[in-house]
Amino acid sequence: MGSAINAVAFPAPHLGKAFYQDELLRRRDLVFLKTDQDESIPACHVRAQRKHSFLSTPPVTILYSHGNAEDVGLHLDYIDALAEYTGADVFSYEYVGYSLSRLDGDTPSEAGCIRSIDAAWRYLVDEQKIHPRRIVIFGRSIGSGPSVDLASRSEVEGTEFSPLDAAGVILQSPLESGAYVVLGGTAATLGYYLDIFRNYEKIGNIKAPVAIMHGTDDEVVPFSNGEAWIVERRFRDYMDC
Question: Are 95 and 112 spatial neighbours (Cβ–Cβ below 8 Å)?
């Protein structure tokens, strides 16, 4: 059961090095992070164009965690558009075992995703000196796992800045957990100890405002996952679009 959950959760794209040389490695905003286990992961720090340069307010930065069947190299157009249309800077990091990390021989895992987002958080708050109140944590699909984990914790090893102070959290097509997506509610309960990204246990610890987006016809992460967060986790404001 555990292998089935992991197989669905982490279908990392298997692209050759040439693709990343043509797409990702040519980016001027490309940086490399080190996890606390010395794994190297790429990330892109997209700076939004400032329409009013005289404004002194620091820009908001979106810390973006991508979905499961993509990687940083595959969504460059998306993060560029996200920065353009929101006016926010976007920091999109890679998971251990995806893209260039996969080519280094690393394999994806829940723990690897957590190490990756922790490295991204340290980069933003310590190296870039961005205050948590100017950071919005945004997770899509499997990216809701590391995003919820980060936003629900009071501390990240290696920095004094707490994710609980983040400006907000956006979850697009979030998982209740890996097993809830693959197996459904009853079977997920039976497979509790093999489950990954048990978001339903952590969501209540988030102090920042949370926005949830979930398509009713989603065929990858069933809408019931997102709906359960609203109905069962005491989200009071719900707008059906």
Answer: yes
